[in-house]
Amino acid sequence: MPLADGTIYMDHAATTPVAxxxxxxxxxxxSEQFGNPSSIYALGRRGMQALDAAHETVAALxxxxxxxxxxxxxxxxxxxxxxxxxxxAPRRRGNHIITTAIEHHAILHTCQQLEREGYHVTYLPxxxxxxxxxxxxxxxxxxxxxxxxxxYANNEIGTIQPLAEIGALCRARRIPFHTDAVQAGGIxxxxxxxxxxxxxxxxxxxxxxxxxxGILYARQGTRLQPQVLGGSQERNRRAGTENVxxxxxxxxxxxxxxxxxxxxxxxxxxxxxxxxxxxxxxxGTRLTGHPARRLPNSASFTLAGVEGESLLLNLDxxxxxxxxxxxxxxxxxxxxxxxxxxxxxxxxxxxHLRLTLxxxxxxxxxxxxxxxxxEITERLRSLSTTxxxxx
Length: 391
Description:
Elements: E1 8-9, H1 20-26, H2 42-62, E2 69-72, H3 75-87, E3 96-100, H4 105-116, E4 120-124, H5 134-140, E5 145-149, H6 163-173, E6 177-180, H7 192-195, E7 199-203, E8 214-218, H8 233-236, H9 244-259, H10 261-279, E9 285-287, E10 298-303, H11 308-317, E11 320-321, H12 337-341, H13 346-349, E12 352-356, H14 363-383
Parallel strand pairs: 1-11, 3-4, 3-5, 5-6, 6-7
Antiparallel strand pairs: 2-8, 7-8, 9-10, 10-12
């Protein structure tokens, strides 16, 4: 179903619209219930009660204690607090961090900063489907390993990692295990016991909540050095007057997403598979990411002989919003670090198209895109100096 302006929106991995029910929950805290939660009078106490309720809602969905939930200013901040907070904490284990070559830049850039400060970081490779090997993680663990951070599902190719297996390895060595679950928040299981994680990051705007609100789960006993200083909010872990409407909206958005997760995932998988089958009928098209272990809403491709940016512009002229990778790297002239880590040549990686589905997506939308893309691809290839692929 197109949006109000007629757009067929297929970029739900970049962001999602705030659900009407979520906005309704938030509105009172922008106006009549505006009190500062740190104030002791009734108006402030009502703000604190709303904030406490948001902690409790998220904790119930993750299967943890409300005191283990920290609201932040976004998913990137949650990632930074998890990694730097643990690395800088007193009595940390060592100065070795393990991650993968396909993490979001919120992870990679943070690890690179720590390397400049003397930390040692192991960037594990992935296979051609973007999957990490638990055996590789186990082989990389040392007595100096202070943290393992591996994303739940990749934002560009949709591959889902074997978190429980990796978590079990870390738990056996008593090494903290963090996952960036930003893309998984609305459509995958988030039970921290089954995932075997000690820290988990989420971002509300990926599951129909407000932008600028992140969530970090940190297992009780995990020492974190605050990265935002100035007050005792969030149990001394994240200073600053709390974003009460944001926290309320994030909690409600996550509740709604998880309550409808199984039904919506099944619907999205059917649409995703329809999209993949249709796209692979276009000569020179390759599916990127694992064929089965992938997000229910994520379809990612390379199209030989075509520039991803040209594809996006042509789709936009037809009222279709799509992406050529992470929204955080739009405008970069370099090929995706995720695709090159899969062994895809830079020239092919530049022909990347990511189509991510959501609540508004219908079978008619998928049919429309599949009907137009072959002609767009053929026309762009005819204008290219690169030889067109054969069927």
